[in-house]
């Protein structure tokens, strides 16, 4: 749930994470000269495992998200929609926190975490807002629009980096962001051909929710960068603590509003959804693990390319599986966005300062 910007996986591109257990394993390769090399020592096989892990987990995650949030439950007059975005994120956070705890036990042991608790609390608020807004947006826009919107994370990250952190970016970064903005504009552009489409909005409530989600994603990224720079916070500790704070905040929220009781009544009427929700949380947590492994073994650039490729095929899968028809202009906009993301991963990185 609380992957460093990717959330969610690695949505904003470069993610600097450190999983000592995995690094120790990779450094140990070659030490046992007499032992036969295992298949995992082959970097090509390792890359295929990481790529398929990210691709399969998040592709299925996307299918489950669209099935849960946009599906029809019941028949006839009894038909209803799923409208419990906060409870869905709460379950996702609980599963991710448990998963992160297991990873820490196996890979990091008793390594201390010096990050201030209140920083995790602040970060969880922006993260939660982004997740709930993103899931709620699916009630108003189709899945390709949501994926494309969430792919625009470099825009708020760059804006907040310039305004809050006073960062300077290379010209290539601005050109990549311009390409992404152009692609989004083409995707959202809907010419008024007749009065029959008068109710078709260009920028409605769903798009506003995506904009809020993106802005909060940018704030989360700034907070996570600060934690990594100041306290050398590991990815697993960040994942655990942000999800624990999120569980606390969301748990109180769903109890206060009574949403949790409505959700339980909904699951009584439609028990099949429980299986999908648990799988949704599990694929999210597993996907984050494969993202961290990709960053550790192959670097943030490779991870950015893998996640960008995955998002494009998620849109393609949504079009094929759920019948979300896209016009030629929307496909052109989609291609421009992912070209911008690819170029940003390759050429848009800020050169590191040598301060020692």
UniProtKB/TrEMBL annotation:
It is found in: Endoplasmic reticulum membrane. InterPro entries: EmrE-like, SCL35B1-4/HUT1. The keyword Glycosyltransferase does not apply. One of its GO terms (molecular function) is UDP-glucose transmembrane transporter activity. The chain crosses the membrane at residues 45-64, 84-107, 119-141, 171-189, 201-222, 242-261, 273-299, 319-343. It holds the Pfam family UAA. Keywords: Endoplasmic reticulum, Membrane, Transmembrane, Transmembrane helix, Transport. It is a multi-pass membrane protein. Its main location: endoplasmic reticulum. Belongs to the nucleotide-sugar transporter family. SLC35B subfamily. This is Solute carrier family 35 member B1. It comes from Sander lucioperca (Pike-perch). The lineage of its organism: Eukaryota, Metazoa, Chordata, Craniata, Vertebrata.
């Amino acid at each position: 749930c609380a992957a460093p910007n990717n959330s969610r996986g690695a949505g904003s591109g470069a993610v600097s994470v450190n999983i000592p257990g995995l690094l120790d394993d990779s450094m140990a390769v070659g030490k046992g000269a007499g032992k036969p090399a295992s298949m995992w020592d082959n970097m090509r096989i390792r890359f295929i495992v990481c790529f398929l892990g990210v691709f399969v987990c998040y592709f299925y995650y996307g299918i489950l998200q669209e099935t849960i949030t946009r599906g029809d439950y019941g028949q006839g007059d009894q038909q209803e929609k799923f409208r419990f975005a906060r409870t869905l994120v709460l379950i996702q956070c609980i599963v991710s926190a448990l998963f992160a705890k297991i990873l820490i036990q196996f890979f990091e042991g008793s390594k201390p975490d010096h990050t201030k608790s209140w920083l995790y609390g602040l970060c969880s608020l922006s993260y939660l807002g982004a997740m709930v807004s993103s899931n709620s947006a699916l009630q108003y826009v189709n899945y390709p629009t949501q994926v494309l919107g969430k792919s625009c994370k470099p825009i708020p990250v760059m804006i907040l980096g310039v305004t809050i952190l006073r960062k300077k970016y290379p010209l290539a970064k601005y050109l990549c962001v311009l390409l992404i903005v152009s692609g989004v504009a083409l995707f959202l552009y809907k010419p008024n051909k007749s009065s029959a489409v008068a109710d078709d909005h260009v920028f409605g409530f769903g798009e506003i929710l995506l904009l809020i989600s993106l802005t909060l994603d940018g704030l989360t990224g700034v907070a996570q960068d600060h934690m990594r720079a100041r306290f050398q916070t590991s990815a697993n500790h960040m994942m655990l603590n942000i999800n624990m704070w999120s569980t606390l905040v969301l748990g109180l929220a769903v109890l206060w509003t009574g949403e949790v009781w409505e959700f339980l009544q909904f699951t009584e009427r439609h028990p099949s959804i429980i299986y999908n929700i648990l799988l949704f949380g599990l694929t999210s947590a597993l996907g984050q693990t494969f993202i961290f492994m990709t960053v550790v073994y192959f670097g943030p650039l490779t991870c950015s390319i893998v996640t960008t490729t995955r998002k494009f095929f998620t849109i393609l899968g949504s079009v094929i599986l759920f019948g979300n028809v896209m016009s030629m202009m929307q496909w052109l906009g989609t291609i421009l966005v992912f070209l911008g993301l690819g170029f940003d991963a390759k050429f848009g990185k800020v050169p590191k300062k040598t301060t020692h």
